[in-house]
Design brief:
The chain has helices at about 15-20, 35-40, 60-65, 85-90, 100-115, 120-125, 135, 155-165, 180-185, 195-200, 220-225, 240-250, 295-315, 340-350, 385-390, 405-410, and strands at about 5-10, 25-30, 45-50, 70-75, 90-95, 145-150, 170-175, 190, 200-205, 230-235, 255-260, 280-285, 330-335, 355-365, 370-375, 395-405. The chain has about 400 residues and is an alpha/beta fold. The strands form 3 sheets. It has a 7-stranded parallel sheet with strand order 8-7-6-9-10-11-12, sandwiched between helices. It has a 5-stranded parallel sheet with strand order 2-1-3-4-5. β9 (about 200-205), α11 (about 220-225) and β10 (about 230-235) form a beta-alpha-beta unit. α5 (about 100-115) packs across α8 (about 155-165). The protein is elongated, with a radius of gyration of 27 Å.
């Protein structure tokens, strides 16, 4: 058998490329590969594993890849990948959650400090030869101020730790809200997003981009914020209504720090415009939250681990498009002899009776003479189906059917 081909379509260190090669993979490294190239119709024909960081993987690319079995996003989010298209073709999608949390949290704190002390504006005037101490000696300070965190996940939790070190009072709104995590971090709970906006001197957003979070931070939220408050977003640009944000900067004097934007250029260097950048006091960075050496190495390590698990065991860590609980009504437990064709016979019976298998495992007993198959079905089979399976003489030892609800109570 020829080795599986893996295409690494974004920047990756030479050391990590060597680790992928050591797994026996045929590694193709193309850090300048574009979304258009992936969707060209021929680029992914021989590819079994695709690794991307910022490169978009569209439906057209996925449908042009007959051998593709796994897509790894070398980062936390998966919004650059058409996960629905991958699921339709039975392609696993995985990512590297939590590996860049500290890097993003550090940048969020940097933007907050930059806005409070107006570091960028003062630097610009100094570079222009102007010493303006009277103007830049004005700052609120962070000690004792209230920081509202929108989304108390991995990154939000790291921001909370750093804010507490600045002696800030920290509150959060998150779905789900994990009380134990919040208590350990010394974080208070806000019942609604609007409540958080109203009590916070600083709001920092840490939400994934999903249908339900699209422009969740909108004019209604900004209307609840204090005049002159600081607003920072280092998560995803699409969760904020930028037109409403620009208007709030003009009308309420909101001070804004962004690392992410609703519309971002595809290339590393490109022209860029946003209404927010000129609407008031603003500091920003070009989506570099995860771009520290520490974070990139941690993400690359995790990417290699995911590929290694897939190659060695067929399982995928951090998979995002597999049902945690298949929609099954019942579970067959079939104890059988470990012989060639036994499982095929059992599945043949289920097929003839149109019983759909949702999940299946087969475990071998010590000695390799017998095994037990656990088969979850979309609906309970008729008694004659069980009788037909039990009648497979010389193959099946015993068969029983249990409703899933019973199993959950037992567990």
């Amino acid at each position: 058998m020829s080795p599986m081909r893996i295409l690494v379509a974004d920047e990756f260190s030479a050391g990590h490329i060597a680790e992928l090669q050591a797994l026996g993979l045929d590694v193709e490294y193309d850090p300048h590969c574009t979304a258009e190239a992936l969707a060209s119709g021929t680029r992914l024909v021989e590819t079994g594993i695709l690794v991307v960081r910022s490169t978009r993987v569209a439906r057209a690319a996925i449908e042009s890849a007959p051998r593709l079995a796994l897509i790894v996003r070398a980062g936390a989010g998966i919004d650059t990948i058409d996960v629905a298209a991958a699921s339709e073709r039975g392609i696993l999608v995985s990512n590297c959650p939590g590996k860049n949390s500290v890097a993003v949290a550090e940048l969020a704190m940097g933007l907050i400090l930059g806005l409070d002390r107006r570091i960028a504006d003062a630097t610009r005037e100094l570079r222009a030869g102007c010493w303006n101490k009277a103007e830049y000696a004005k700052a609120d300070g962070l000690k004792g101020r209230t920081l509202g965190i929108v989304g108390l996940g991995r990154v939000g939790s790291e921001v909370a730790r750093r804010a507490r070190a600045f002696e800030m009072h920290v509150v959060a709104w998150s779905i789900p809200f994990r009380s134990e995590r919040a208590e350990a971090l010394g974080v208070g709970r806000c019942a609604t997003l609007h409540d958080l906006a109203g009590v916070s001197d600083v709001v920092s957003v840490h939400l994934p981009q999903r249908v339900e979070t699209r422009r969740l931070i909108n004019a209604d939220v900004f209307a609840c914020m204090k005049s002159g408050a600081i607003f920072v977003n280092t998560s995803r640009g699409g969760v904020v209504d930028e037109a409403a944000l620009a208007e709030a900067m003009r009308s309420k004097g909101l001070r804004v720090g962004l690392d992410v934007f609703e519309t971002e250029p595809a290339g590393g260097v490109a022209p860029f415009q946003s209404a927010v950048t000129s609407a008031g006091l603003f500091v920003g960075t070009p989506h570099i939250g995860a771009s520290t050496e520490q974070a990139q190495n941690a993400i690359a390590d995790e990417t290699v681990r995911i590929c290694a698990e897939f190659v060695k065991t067929g399982t995928v860590p951090n998979v995002v498009n597999i049902e945690e609980q298949a929609p099954a009504e019942c579970q067959l437990v079939v104890r059988h002899y470990d012989k060639v064709g036994v499982l095929a016979s059992i599945l043949g019976v289920l097929r003839r009776h149109e019983a759909n298998v949702e999940e299946m495992t087969n475990r071998i007993f010590k000695g390799a003479k017998t095994a037990v198959a656990t088969i979850r079905l979309s609906k309970a089979p008729a008694p004659e189906v069980l009788a037909e399976i039990a009648a497979l003489t010389g193959a099946v030892i015993a068969v029983e059917c249990k409703p899933i609800g019973f199993l959950h109570l037992a567990e």
